[in-house]
Amino acid sequence: MGRTLNLREKLAILADAAKYDASCASSGTIRRHSGDGRGLGSTEGMGICHAYTPDGRCISLLKILLTNFCILDCAYCINRRSSSVRRARFTVDEVVRLTLGFYRRNYIEGLFLSSGIIRSPDYTMEQLIQVARTLREVHHFRGYIHLKTIPDAAPELVAQAGRWADRLSINVELPTAEGLARLAPEKDGQRIERAMADLDGRIRESREARRRFRNAPTFAPAGQSTQMIVGADAADDRTILARADALYRQHGLRRVYYSAYSPIPDAHPSLPPGAPPLVREHRLYQADWMLRFYGFARSELEAIMPDGLLPLDVDPKTAWALAHRQLFPVDVNRAPRELLLRVPGIGPKVAGRILAVRRHRTLRWADLARLVASPRAVRPWVATPDWRPTALLDRESLRALVVKPRQGDLFAPPAA
Ligand code: SF4
pTM of the full predicted structure? Predict the structure, then answer.
């Protein structure tokens, strides 16, 4: 029997264990740290992560597991039953105290709480609920709470969780049923789907009730999300995006998180020895945004991944534009919003600003350059009265120019 861990030790273990959950992690950045005493800051840190509230604010969350003990043995998970990882478990009261302590010191604005499964799914879910309920009822905590939901827990417990939490999530874990059956045979893919459908139904009911009665109780007002591990099985990007698209449509998910598989100690032999390139995860997020916010159909994305994988050297929107040069340049003074959104470097916000400005006057290149984050990225694809990139679009080597923006002299602003 080992000695009892103090709170700081538990926090070190259970914040580290939570870092594998991508549900509120920053994605696509490079890994840096200052653990060698040189420099300041780290992109690898754990314990505090960022999330977006329903009104679009970015907030910091204490991101921890209630425990990393688990009765299941999912092959890809560091906390699986057969793993030799150091274990810890918080009490409900400890999580409550930590959350309030960090909140009062202004370190966080909310809590992201997940857990390994202990004793039973219901018991674990009850513990998670107990944390959220104590924070809300006893301490009147108004901060953001995201609870991971155990798919096998009783529906009444899930209903309670939604009463106290802003967001609930259930991880589908792997993109395909075959992958789940092979790497997490104790999990039931159909039950996970049913639990998500049930959550969706409750969230919709609650929204509808609140439309009619202002005081109707809320249920997970920030909706539900899920996470898929990328690169632990052979599922390609086409399969992953097809699954994500189906989840958005069928269960009204607010967000699908893609988490690049990280090799773990004592890994199961069926797992790949290395991690997929981190940029793959980033490309999936970009493609996901194209589906949700830019009006692209899944078949259009599939056309740019003939081998089933998104290109890594160029973002998917630029890859699509390169394959459809005949649609460019887009006249920013005339194009409808749907076409503006097809331009690399123009997102929904910039498209909205372009539409607003052009109601009053004609946009010239300098006007557009002020509206976009990267004039260089936009330049090959748009036309204004004083700029038309026809020669650029006709170049065989446009892809190389777009991928390697160093050769940017061609993108220099027009002479005044
Ligand atoms: S149930 Fe969750 S914590 Fe337990 S082994 Fe599977 S993925 Fe890991």
Answer: 0.86
